Amino acid sequence: MVNLLLCGNKKVFDGALTQLISITNRTKEAINCYIFTMDVSRIKPEYVCITDEQVEFLNEVVKSKNPNNQVIKIDVTSLYEEEFMNSANEDAYCTPYTLLRLLADKIPEIPDKLLYLDIDIMVGDDITKLYNINIDEYEYAAVKEKYGCWLIRPDYINAGMLLLNMKKIKQTKLLEKARELLKRKKLLFADQSAIYWNTKKKLLLPRKFNEQSKFNRKDTVICHFCKRLMFRPYPHTENYKQWNIHEVHTVLKCHSFDKDLEEYVKLKQKFENKIEERI
């Protein structure tokens, strides 16, 4: 069993659907996917939970690949409010949903080993090649951050992929310390930096387990469609996600996930038709 953790609100549906398609198309082992979500519409109206209908559809999709697969929604609104309400890092560099992974140690049903993935990730190979890496002696395994390892520290990590040893994390209180740091101090990269600065022992993995800039490498296991800094024809950033199919093809020149994205388009239409029928 591969235990996954995704986090987000109603808007992460496209990311979750594309990602889970890419995983289940390449992995025979059963997938158990938790989705942490919350309603903090007090901050922005669109910050509402992923819907039951969305999770139900995701569950149907993964079970069509393997009947033992499942998607489980966990509403962590009350936990989030208890820990982070009105804190300095609620306006994190992305959204407050980036903080939800820091609550994993407070959810009783979370297993001892857990693979956290950002929603803007596609999986290019059998995910067990990552999940089965031995991290018994580490709090987690991660890949260096493409810019942070130059600008912050040589071993600074990208938290978009974290293979978590929850048993050891509870022993060292890594996530608890990260939460406390975020309550006291404003951090540029919020959860990512809070995890990094409180780490006692991590395992650094090759970039193929969190490729952040090249989208057509044949050995890539985790392909991360994160923001890129570009210098030509002028300094600017690009932030195209896997569901931005036109830009993925024309700007990123990526065709590694074409079959997955074709399936996504059909399934997205199927979901929208189901919702219309219910109205």
Mean pLDDT: 93
Enter the CATH topology name. Answer: Spore Coat Polysaccharide Biosynthesis Protein SpsA, Chain A
Judged by helices, strands and strand pairing, the structural class is alpha/beta
How much β-strand is present in the residues? 15-25%
CATH superfamily: Spore Coat Polysaccharide Biosynthesis Protein SpsA, Chain A
Order of H and E elements: EHEHEHEEHEHEHHHEEEEHH
Strand tally is 11
Q: Percent helix among the residues?
A: 25-40%
Low-pLDDT parts are none
**Total helical elements:** 10
The end-to-end span amounts to 37 Å
Attribute tags:
alpha/beta
Task: Walk me through this protein's architecture.
Helices cover 34% and strands 19% of the residues. By secondary structure, the chain is α/β, with parallel strands linked by helices. The protein has a single domain (2-278), classed as Alpha-Beta Complex (Spore Coat Polysaccharide Biosynthesis Protein SpsA, Chain A), CATH 3.90.550. The chain has a seven-stranded mixed beta sheet. Helix 1 (13-24) runs parallel beside helix 2, helix 1 (13-24) crosses helix 10 (258-278) and helix 7 (174-184) packs across helix 8 (190-197). The radius of gyration is 18 Å and the shape is globular. It starts with a strand and ends with a helix. The relative contact order is 0.15. The mean pLDDT is 93.
